[in-house]
Amino acid sequence: MRTACIAGLMLSATALAQWPEYRNAKAPRTVEGKVDLSAPAPRTAGGRPDLSGVWEYMRPPGTPPPPPPARATPGAPADIIPLAVRTSQFWNLGASFKEGLPFTPRAAELHRQRVASNSQDNPDAHCLPLGLMQLHTHGQPRKMIQTPDVIVIIYEANAGLRQIFTDGRPLPKDPQPWWFGYSAGKWDGDSMVVETNGFRDLGWLDVEGSPLTEAGKLIERFRRRDYGHLQIEVTIDDPKAYTRPWTVTVHQRLMPDTELIEFVCQENEKDAPHLKGQ
Amino acid sequence: MKLSRRTVCALLLLAPAAPLAAQWTDYPKPVIPRLPDGTPNLAASVPKTPDGKPDLSGIWETSPGYTGNIARDLKNGEVQFQPWAETLYKHRVETMSREDPQARCVLSGVPRENVVPYPFKIFNTNGEIVILYEALHSYRQIFMDGRPLPKNPNPTWMGYSVGHWDGDTLVVESSGFVDNNWLDNNGHPGTEALHLTERFRRRDFGHIDAAITVDDPKAYKKPWTVNLKFNLNPDTELIEYVCDENEKDVNHLVGK
Question: Chain B interface, mutation test: which of A26, A151, A161, most B Cβ atoms within 10 Å?
């Protein structure tokens, strides 16, 4: 049974609510009045790219469309998680790695256990914070707000708030371990390069539970290539969980003329006691 | 064991307060004016944004004492309940707030976020003011681009807020709240008819005076206003707050 996974997905019920429309007076527009997503990326008064906006996850460009779901064999348990979901970055961050992710033996065993128990301990399914990579690949949008000395990311999904300090401070040497870690960023040309450490141990990078340990460090390169598209190249360097650093690229597109909606995971939450492993 | 009201309040506070044991991260900000001994000069003048308006940015914490009763400074008769709201308020007080949604890790909402004993961080950005609340990892956006309040918004705990400047005072109007709102730990009710007006004035570098007017004709016969003070928390940062982590308290809430 994959009830746990389904329950995890169902916590996104707010996605059924209505995102409010509000026309952004500053956005570049086509002659039909639509936001021109291929216009140049906006810039701050200081001349840097402005990453601000409401962004939604998109499948990596060039990803072949998923094949239609296979017909279930009579009598066999139905495969209720569509292949498109199981091969998504949200489900498996290493979906595009032919050999799989370069797990250390200990991480491979933990990953195996998490998959075998239908991800029933996925923090997201218990209204606990998602990991940063889960938040990058989540179906619910996020809003980036860029100020001169800090970039704030408000994730619509379960209480995700993140500050990326861009005031030149170094990463702390022995930080309090946090779900979201401690992030400091600097500009490299038109890319915002963010380093994050201070994660709690045994975090989840995806629904399958590819781990991230307290030894892990994330290096993210955010690049807004035009008005409507954001690319985040992420290198995960975690010698306790992976035999070498590895890199994935996440793509997001602008959700123009709208806003985040409120999401309260715990409100009338009845699912968690029903999560089942195999 | 019969618990006093104070004990239950303490329990309610402690339920989500685990991060208090953690350490706030110190980081001295170069832009803070300082006295000769290096301590922040909280009486220094108010910083301004490039357009000449007061800059409310910073990490703030409300003067304590209003968490239980947001209206504690008001005289008898200033808060005039509608009959059903008075019944509900008495019920919440008598049952020691055991039905409080916040004790179940649901958002505190607005204006209650102004009286919880946790810091919040205000950001001034392009066209909006954003507040991150340490409590319950919540946030609020105050749109400053001249948009009106929506006519029929999706009801939310934090409401929908628009702001404008009245001289040096930021005036924030909010509506679109949920119908079962709690304005404080005691449980002053708020309904979907709540219209909130907040006036924020940064008096000097280290202090904001806040006047909050509750206009909710479904719950109260006339509007009432509370005055709060926000104090700057210099050289530090918010810490992570995860209400639901290892949460074991809710099953032990007692009440009559």
Answer: A161
